[in-house]
Design goal:
The chain has 431 residues and is mainly α. It has a single domain, classed as Na+/H+ antiporter like fold (Up-down Bundle), CATH 1.20.1530.20. The N and C termini lie far apart (65 Å). The chain is 74% helix and 0% strand. It is a multi-pass membrane protein.
């Protein structure tokens, strides 16, 4: 007899999304609250609605969802935004990661988590500092007045620090880090991933010049995302960084085409060799078709995130969470404090650094509590080998922190925008 498990699973996911959005819009609350709660309730109490064994197909679900989640985030980053906020994103992706590692290493000497090695401390903090743009955007999208610059920082941070974590996780988990070897290997992974991403980005950008329909262009971006991720992993570099670079590169060249060749006010511009090489007079897409691609990529990423929530539901064991309750609360409190200190740079030191834009106290508040964890933390903790001695603790702490960050941070932002700040927000960045 034919199994209808995939069809039933699809019905369950789409029904949960539709019902969550409908209820969230009526109650004026973030839909991610309902998605997370609903996925657990369905998985725990309505097994017939989830006929696929999540434990058995854990790897398949995770690997299928990764490119869709990152593709949607990367597409929303414009090249002009990266140029404008490049140093700020670098700070969030590298300096903030280094800060979390330093704090994790220092807590090792205080024995906060009994029995863990230095490498375990570092990797545990790294995993639980990884933000998830899908969870954040599902909350912030409910409120008007969030500046574009804030959204760029949030999305750039998510992509940047997660790529950094994926590169450094193997050494952080080992507990025996040779600085010279780790630096050399990290530079190799970074350089090869960036190079492959640029090459793939250019190749798919040129392929998109061969046709001019929005569906084909959307599918090309999806193919590009999966191809970049698979190729990066097969070459033993960072598939995530390869994917991010490829999508951003294609998008940057498309933006250049639209700006230079497809604008209504065409001005004669001397064409350089590079412009001729990418045949800028042939547009890969248009602004209208690109808007469609944005919207569909966001929806695909949203569905993928819901699938990850069902995986998270499989990991939830309240007895284990209660057993590690102290570790979960300590990790949640410390990571919140780290984030608040990291984001304070934007509020109080930005004006002294020309390349980093200040956002003021309100922007600091939004950035601090937009650091929700989600699908990406689950992906990172799942990548830990089953033989790793601290895996149970890692899964319990990460699951607890993900749940707390979504509900606590989300509730704080919801309360702020609902009861405190009802008028549209002024532009936060000083230019």
């Amino acid at each position: 007899m034919h199994s209808f498990a995939p069809e039933i699973m699809l019905i369950t996911i789409l029904s949960l999304v539709v019902l969550s959005d409908m209820i969230a819009s009526r109650l004026k609350i973030p839909s991610v609250f309902l998605l997370l709660s609903g996925s657990y309730l369905i998985y725990a109490y309505f097994k017939a609605a989830v006929p696929i064994d999540m434990a058995e197909h854990f790897d398949t679900v995770i690997l299928f969802c990764i490119p869709l989640i990152f593709m949607g985030d990367a597409l929303h980053l414009r090249f002009s935004d990266l140029k404008k906020h490049g140093w700020s994103i670098f700070y969030l992706a590298v300096i903030a990661v280094a800060l979390s590692i330093a704090v994790g290493a220092s807590l090792y000497y205080f024995g906060v988590f009994a029995g863990l090695s230095l490498g375990a401390y570092v990797s545990l903090f790294a995993i639980n500092m990884a933000t998830d743009a899908v969870s954040v955007q599902s909350v912030l999208s409910r409120f008007s007045g969030i500046s574009h610059d804030i959204k760029v920082l949030i999305e750039g941070e998510s992509l940047g620090n997660d790529a950094t974590f994926f590169i450094g996780l193997p050494w952080m988990m080992s507990g025996h880090i040779d600085p010279v070897h780790a630096t050399t290997e990290a530079l190799r992974v970074f350089a090869v991933s960036i190079g492959m991403g640029l090459a793939l980005g250019y190749g798919f950008y040129m392929l998109m010049k061969l046709f001019s329909d929005k569906r084909g262009e959307l599918f090309m971006f999806i193919i590009e995302g999966y191809a970049a991720y698979v190729l990066g992993e097969e070459m033993h570099v960072s598939g995530i960084l390869t994917l991010i670079t490829a999508i951003i590169a294609s998008k940057a060249w498309i933006d250049m085409d639209i700006t230079l060749s497809c604008s209504t006010e065409k001005k004669p511009v001397a064409k350089s060799f590079l412009r001729k090489l990418r045949m800028e007079n042939i547009c890969a897409t248009t602004t209208e078709r690109l808007d469609y691609i944005y919207e569909m990529a966001k929806e695909f990423g949203y569905i993928a995130a819901v699938m990850i929530f069902f995986v998270l539901a499989e990991m939830v064991d309240f007895e284990t969470l209660w057993f590690y309750r102290n570790e979960i609360l300590v990790m949640f409190g410390v990571t919140t404090l780290i984030r608040a200190v990291s984001m304070a740079k934007f509020a109080f030191f930005g004006k002294t650094i020309n390349s980093i834009k200040p956002v003021g106290a309100e922007g600091w508040f939004i950035l601090t509590f937009s650091g929700m964890k989600g699908a990406l933390s689950i992906i990172l903790v799942h990548m830990i080998p089953a033989s790793y001695e601290y895996k149970v603790l890692f899964e319990a702490v990460t699951t607890g922190v993900v749940i707390l960050s979504i509900f606590v941070y989300g509730a704080i932002l919801w309360a702020y925008f609902t009861f405190v700040k009802k008028e549209p927000e002024k532009k936060l960045f000083a230019h």
